[in-house]
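Progress note, sequence design subtask.
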């Protein structure tokens, strides 16, 4: 089983190791008195309130000059370590020292944490007594929420901190459905558009991550989350989850991989970097998604970078222009970094899922088509006046219809019928298929 991981981060000497030892319950473990000493990174198992998790101590300083004021080098190292911790952990605990107050290094760490999209808890350490508690509030300035006043040495406040850590951890839940039946979503997009950031925020916000389904090894690449509307499976997210990136894949291979995921998916999030507009490659990817027959939700990410009203309008025009063939796909403007507008994402996927699985009662379908025909009868073709006789929905996933007509229908008319069906039954984001069969009556 995949235990959730908690990483303890912060500049040297704030008490990370002490807190680490406190959490794993080994009070006798060695604590480095000297902040400059190299030590190995440790990951150990711990539990609290019956939840098991891993604790990662990011230790390992190689900063012999740290004490002698090489502040820039220290900031660089702290930054690198924090980034590494972010990629490995589900929850981060940022430790600061109330006896010192806010330092440049604390601010550097906080900056990276704030945009990680992962839950972060701020531990204001060395609050050995009540009189120190007031000092903890100065750290609100780091923008990481309210600090938890703790004393790693004495154990003061660490229970409250751990309660909060547990609450922020992804919850593993069982699902009844076999993994194959779960509505599946692929996250597609060019490199660097923010797919990983987006994905981590989705699982960070949702908190309920379903354990990998048993007996399906390939599914370990997938991540299942429990949402209010049932489970959702994100396909081939191993490389995004905790960002275990081996190396930056070349554009070609990463795109190829994304396409494999798309072919297995019921829906795709097409992530576009809004600050760059819709590029030729976005367009090609969109065409490919359209062909694969999955439902599509267009995600204009990095909307926080598009501040100029004219540029905003231009991006939307671009989408309408260059992705016109996706026609009915919803377009969401979000920021994976700030979390802005994220609440629209799961509902959009839920609508996509509903539309994809929609089965329309035959009587309703026929009523709608007869109505459409009455408003706008098919044009004559070679002096024949075609009539729609009857229609059925032959399949779902995506909805597939067969219309029986007395004669061939012109393409424009078929598109009219498609539009009426789509609007009438709110098939929004899903592709649909409509075939016309001739039946002489
Ligand atoms: P790290 O470099 O962040 O891992 O910090 P350490 O855990 O090695 O602790 C640095 C120093 O702070 C050590 O001398 C600890 O004994 C001390 N320290 C850690 N926690 C507390 C605490 O809660 N109160 C006080 N007064 N000192 C602490
Ligand atoms: P991926 O290659 O598509 O997985 O992209 P990443 O998730 O690794 O993101 C690439 C870069 O874009 C990183 O530096 C992110 O911090 C940044 N990024 C992602 N989402 C946003 C966003 O919404 N706004 C801004 N400003 N930057 C973002």
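Output:
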């Amino acid at each position: 089983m995949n235990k959730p991981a908690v990483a303890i981060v912060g500049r040297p000497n704030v008490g990370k190791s002490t807190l680490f030892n406190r959490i794993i319950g080994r009070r006798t473990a060695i604590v480095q008195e000297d902040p400059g000493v190299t030590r190995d990174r440790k990951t150990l198992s711990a539990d609290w309130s019956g939840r098991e998790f891993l604790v990662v101590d990011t230790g390992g300083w190689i900063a012999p000059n740290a004490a002698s004021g090489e502040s820039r080098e220290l900031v660089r190292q702290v930054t690198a370590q924090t980034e590494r911790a972010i990629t490995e952990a589900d929850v981060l605990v940022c430790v600061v020292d109330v006896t010192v107050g806010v330092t440049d290094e604390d601010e550097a760490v906080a900056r990276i944490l704030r945009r990680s999209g992962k839950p972060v808890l701020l531990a204001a350490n060395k609050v050995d007594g009540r009189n120190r508690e007031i000092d903890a509030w100065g750290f609100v300035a780091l923008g990481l929420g309210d600090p938890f006043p703790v004393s790693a040495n004495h154990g003061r406040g660490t229970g409250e901190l751990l309660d909060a850590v547990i609450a922020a951890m992804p919850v593993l839940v069982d699902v009844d459905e076999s993994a194959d039946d779960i509505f599946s979503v692929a996250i597609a997009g060019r490199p660097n558009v923010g797919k990983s950031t987006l994905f981590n925020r989705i699982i960070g916000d949702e908190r309920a991550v379903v354990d990998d389904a048993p007996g399906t090894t390939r599914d370990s690449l997938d991540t299942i989350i429990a949402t209010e509307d049932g489970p959702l499976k994100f396909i081939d997210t191993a490389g995004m989850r905790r960002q275990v990136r081996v190396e930056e894949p070349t554009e070609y291979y990463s795109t190829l991989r994304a396409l494999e995921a798309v072919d297995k998916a019921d829906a795709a999030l097409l992530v576009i970097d809004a600050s760059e507009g819709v590029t030729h490659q976005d367009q090609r990817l969109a065409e490919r998604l359209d062909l694969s027959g999955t439902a599509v939700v267009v995600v204009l990410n990095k909307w926080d970078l598009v501040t100029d009203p004219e540029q905003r309008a231009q991006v939307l025009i671009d989408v309408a222009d260059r992705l016109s063939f996706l026609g009915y796909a919803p377009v969401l403007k979000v920021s994976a970094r700030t979390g802005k507008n994220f609440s629209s994402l799961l509902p959009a996927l839920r609508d996509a899922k509903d539309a994809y699985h929609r089965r329309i009662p035959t009587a309703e379908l026929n009523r709608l088509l007869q109505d459409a025909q009455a408003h706008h009868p098919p044009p004559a073709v070679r002096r024949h006046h075609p009539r729609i006789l009857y229609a059925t929905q032959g399949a779902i996933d995506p909805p597939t219809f067969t219309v029986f007509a007395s004669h061939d229908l012109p393409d424009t008319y078929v598109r009219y019928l498609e539009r009426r069906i789509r609007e009438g039954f709110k098939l929004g984001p899903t592709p649909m298929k409509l075939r016309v069969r001739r039946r002489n009556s």
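Residues 71-88 form the longest helix (18 residues). Work on this subtask will continue into the next period as scheduled.
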